[in-house]
Amino acid sequence: MSAEFEHINDARSFIVEKLSENSLLGRGGYMMRNALYVLDYKPEQEPYARDLVRAICESDLPARSVRPLVVNLYDIVLAFLDEQGMWEPLVEAEPDASREELIMMLQDTVSVRDVIAPAVNAAIEDNPDADIVFITGVGETYPYVRTHTLLQEMSATKPVVLVFPGRFERRSDGSTSLNILNLDQGTTGGYYRATRVFDL
């Protein structure tokens, strides 16, 4: 049965308790569930969710001897564009390009499979002492970073929590959908291996 909270701040104790369980963290050599989780929240609560994740990662989990790692997708995108010398051209193109054209440029430039997922996987590999990984910046990188594509490309061997502004829904036919910003993604939002944190 799912836990329901009107406000993401009300869920703090629940989230900390569930994400510090030994079985979820794979302590003792066996991970009880699939290692991919979605922490969804109402998009209008974004500032609160951001502060909550920071507090959980900086205070609550370390107090339980859990070492979290936070990977921000938006930071990855900005770093890549800067490294490739593409940030300025994109900024210059913005006034004359439509929203759709900008999205296409970003999708062509910052591929989830070729850029984002490898960077996320590398960040996890570079922090072997981390017990659990939080992926943030999902809303800031939508729609040119597709969350379900990223999850399919994940190769982490430790729990990964996608901090998600929207709804993670399980349909009557058993399929699931990641509906970012509460926009129904239909079949394009389908993802089947992740577990909603509030369903733990």
Automatic annotation (TrEMBL):
Q: Which InterPro entries match?
A: BrxB (IPR014858)
Origin: domain of life:
Bacteria
Concerning Pfam families, the annotation shows: BrxB
Protein name in the entry: DUF1788 domain-containing protein
Source organism (scientific name): Slackia heliotrinireducens (strain ATCC 29202 / DSM 20476 / NCTC 11029 / RHS 1) (Peptococcus heliotrinreducens)
